[in-house]
Amino acid sequence: MSEPIIYHIDVNSAFLSWEAERRHREHPEETDLRSIPSAIGGNEEMRHGIVLAKSPSAKKYGVRTGEPLAQARRKCPGLVVVPPNYPLYVEKSRKFIELLQRYAPSVEQYSIDEAFCDMSGTEKLYGNPVLFAHTLKDTIMQELGFTVNIGVSCNKLLAKMASDFEKPNQVHTLFPGEIPEKLWPLPIEELFFVGRATSAKLRSMGIATIDQLAATDVRILRSHFKKHGETIWNYANGRDTGEVTSKAPANKSYGNSLTIHFDVEDSATAKMVLLSLCETVGARIRADKSYIGVVSVSIVDFEFHHSSRQETLPSSTNVTEKIYESACRLFDRLWDGKPIRQLGVSAGHATTEHYMQYELFDSENSEKLSRLNSAIDSIRSRYGEDSIKRARFAASKDAPEQSAGFSHMTRGLDKSKRTGMTGKV
Description:
Blueprint: E1 6-11, H1 14-26, E2 38-41, E3 51-54, H2 56-60, H3 69-75, E4 80-82, H4 86-103, E5 106-111, E6 114-118, H5 123-126, H6 129-144, E7 148-153, H7 156-163, E8 171-173, H8 179-183, H9 196-204, H10 210-215, H11 218-225, H12 227-236, E9 254-264, H13 267-287, E10 292-301, E11 306-317, H14 320-334, E12 340-348, H15 362-383, H16 415-418
Parallel strand pairs: 2-4, 7-8
Antiparallel strand pairs: 1-6, 1-7, 2-3, 5-6, 9-12, 10-11, 10-12
Helix pairs in contact: 11-12, 13-14
């Protein structure tokens, strides 16, 4: 049996590339965004003003994805900032995945601009898999108008690491025999699954490069990081058993958060935001025919301090009202009165089996609410999410003055951004 061949395909500066391709097609006389210091940036007035993607020349100025636009402009005073166009990104992503599905037996979409392809056994069709990766890269450019990086290896972890090597428009390999030369000399921050907090702790332990992590006794890593320590140790040694699958995994948890465009200073407005979050979390749970047993609430205050709390429910539920009641209890215990910048609601311990602690008066009510919620979901699915909403979200002179500006069904992305977004897209 031949060795597995996995591609990881990553669109280079996806949002900016997709916008640049659209502009060039519609206005070929305009300067290509990819050739000047430019960025796709969020709405600063709505406090979503961060860099979502940047051009190679903006990167030379030190502009980084995820940093505030104000900071990016200080680094690059001539930075051209273009607002995001989410429907365009969804369409480009769909065409990207459809092209890959023409060539790969199995395609797993990892994010809106990344995918894994299992190319095992295709050598008789396409020849040398590394040479064909170049052909595929060029085909994407010719047909779709944007560049990608392709990492080639025998497992998903190494393929993803390879695709992050020199960019843009490159094919890189990272097979097990190449690990000492290509992977181990890299700083620990370059390893997949090693975030800022983990890297800081590893460096405090004297582990600064991936080879040092690979050579560390796994028992030491387990004592400091528990299961995560064993995972990153395996990754440092190039081990990954994950398979490429086109089937989306079942949800184990459901979450949603919202950065609010004003500082929330009263409980009534905060709880309206929580209800709007619970509406969409509940709808997603019911869509998966699931029930959840844990609810958590998170708060980020105006000074960016983060706090959270969770509780286990006596009975599993898919009822929005039950999730909201729990969220309000948690909020009342958690909030210290400081102005709130962001609120989040998560529901976990998902299961397809419904368990209920016997409650004399509440059991029948919960079943009625579940059926009512499902009926509302059906109406919204058929006629649109705004076809039915709770009375407290209807325009009213008694509603908190600043509550306008967030939807009765907050989804993290507003409606204009999520148009057409489904699944992992």
